[in-house]
Amino acid sequence: MSAAVMEQARDALRRYFGYDSFRSGQERLVSAILDGRDALGVMPTGAGKSICYQLPAVLLDGVSLVVSPLISLMKDQVDALTETGIPATYINSSLSAQETNERLRGMLEGRYKLVYIAPERLESERFVSIVRQVPIPLVAVDEAHCVSQWGHDFRPSYMGIARLLAHIEPRPVMAAFTATATDVVKQDIVDRLRLSRPERVTTGYARDNLALSVVRNADKRDYLERYIRERRGQAGIVYAATRREVESVHSHLRSLGIAAGMYHAGLSEEERDAAQDAFLRDDLQIIVATNAFGMGIDKSNVRFVVHYNMPKNLEAYYQEAGRAGRDGDPGECVLLFSPADTVTQKFFIERSEADEERKKNDYRLLNDMVEYANTSDCLQRAIVRYFGEADAEPCGRCGNCTDERELVDMTEEAQMIFSCVARVRQRFGVTMIAKILRGSNDAKIRQFGFDSLSVYGRMSGRPEKEIAQLIHALIADGYLRLTDSQYPVVQLAEPARGVIEGREQVFRRVEPAIVRRRGRGRSGAGDAGDQDVYDSELFEQLRQLRKKMADREGVPPFVIFHDATLREMSQLMPRTEQELRGIKGIGDAKFAKYGREFLELLQTAVKE
Question: Domain Helicase C-terminal spans what residues (predicted)?
């Protein structure tokens, strides 16, 4: 890649997006695409994946296609691109036949630099005939994990993307992007999309601005009420596992006087759109939803994500939790865990139409999720290790890292559990092990003769639920493992040997962890380490001006400027056009459209 071309790219980055330099990984991917090479980018939510294909599309001749799974994602990104001065559109099922025809004509006439499409659109013969007539330099696949049957959100419609290449001459650059992917999923993406020797960039999975927490066995309703009230005015998403749970939580919050929206697939399209728009436009700060909500939602100022129920796997969890703090400011991600959540997810797996191999994989992923919910390790490190980063350091921010309670020696209890697992020949699950140690009078225990084992009743002073929780903790910490099946069996892992032989000790914080509020400074932005102090009163005035403009323009507020841009304004207080142009996120088109009103407000604030 020539220096001149990359200088053009940096100039376009400044002119359209308002940034002076690339973030980690962006330059490598942009350079590869502009050099005509395929690319695979695995970058966490908020790391700037979209710029990696939007910027090359601006510089390349022709119309670039972006395959995206959800209508909301397309609309948000097209709105944002239009605001920056880049001609873009989308074609999906929300359009009338007349609107679709007009946009297809626009493609033929070269009116757009980017066209967003749903994967199902590739099955349209008319669309394919248009594609044959238009120069297409780039096909970008967003949420590329959807192409992998081993990922957490496999979509068969994504399988048609590779077939599109046969209709485009010359072959376009193929670029795939996702926020999370294990090594197996990455290779599946490369194979199924037929990427040719792609430039692979993984920027790391750690999100330095997120504080992860797991709250076990809490009264979920009471906890959620307290948590939301303590964060009055902050935008947050509450995820629940089922439609019924969403409606129950939503009704409860409304009964408490907490304004909240609701989103799940059982609502009408009009109801879903209204709830989503109210949330995006900051008319509602809280939304309660199933996982049908959120993929590709480009709202940057979500400050917290609470999972009322445990998701089906860690990839899904991190995708959903990662919708907090997309603007780089502090975000909180809380998982409210109870054993009943596991039963719900097993029901979903069994009810699915997946084959047995897929179900076995789903059970393995569910076990990994349960281990995360019970681990005593740094939560951020547990996640990045799951994705293959073995040398990760503790984050210092998560609920486990900030838990200051004294560690308790649980070696004796661990030895009893390991002994029980061995004596039942590693053939039974967590519940049976807990019942034996508790000394239960269960008929199956008598049937198998387990009431005559030396370990029977050895932990009778503890509730069965607490013993089961300790077993899960030992699984999470690697002393035990579960088989990948609907009724997983507990087995001994190699690290247990040192404990059994008395060479190693096991320590555990045994009480349920309580999520701590992060320290609040003048900014009210949370404990972000080196986060600069800013004028919170001016920040709120800037937000109100942005909201007024957004309502006038008919777009979500973050499409005009992200919170991070407003925060930098309220910190640096620019007084001249040149100073305001120096704020990150203010490109030429946005300055021309909005700069004067913001500058007037800032100049007035400085005078006061």
Answer: 223-370
